[in-house]
């Protein structure tokens, strides 16, 4: 799945789209799962960046990987059920992409090493991974992309609110 839709739109819209996909995937995790609060916090902080830039790239990155080994990347590594491990990996990718966009906006000279491989095409890679996990289908992704394209082609205001993004799709 190759995608040119994201080439010329602002960072917050790109991140909002990625987070909307991540929300759909994360909805599979039971609220009773002991890791759920950390996953929810990671998504909430990413949305906070989209809405107000009230968190930094570094704060977002700490949700993935930190000195205490309590970041959400640990959940993906420790999970024995492959589909759930993939789900956590997708969440890590969504937070990493958000952190990368935040660092770029902050004009940080040196990124954490694990973010250095992120680039403009990372959204396409993320979407392909979401499809490979079977949490979303190609048709669902294409429908979401079509809705976003149609929205951006109108004179509507630019989306930067979690509820507006999710409601749109």
Automatic annotation (TrEMBL):
Tree of life domain: Bacteria
InterPro entries named among the record's database cross-references: Imm6 (IPR025674)
Name assigned to this protein: Immunity protein Imm6
Species classification: Bacteria, Bacillati, Bacillota, Bacilli, Bacillales
Pfam families, alphabetized: Imm6
């Amino acid at each position: 799945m190759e995608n040119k839709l994201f080439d010329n739109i602002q960072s917050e819209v790109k991140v909002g789209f990625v987070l909307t996909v991540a929300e759909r995937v994360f909805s599979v995790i039971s609220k009773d799962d002991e890791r759920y609060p950390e996953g929810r916090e990671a998504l909430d902080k990413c949305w906070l960046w989209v809405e107000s830039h009230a968190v930094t790239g570094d704060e977002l990155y700490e949700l993935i990987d930190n000195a205490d080994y309590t970041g959400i990347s640990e959940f993906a590594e420790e999970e024995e059920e492959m589909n759930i491990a993939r789900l956590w990996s997708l969440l890590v990718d969504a937070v990493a992409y958000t952190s990368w966009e935040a660092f770029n906006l902050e004009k940080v000279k040196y990124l954490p090493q694990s973010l250095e491989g992120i680039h403009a095409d990372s959204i396409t890679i993320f979407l392909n991974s979401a499809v490979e996990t079977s949490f979303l289908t190609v048709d669902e992704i294409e429908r979401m992309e079509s809705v976003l394209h149609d929205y951006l082609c109108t004179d509507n205001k630019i989306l930067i609110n979690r509820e507006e993004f999710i409601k749109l799709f």
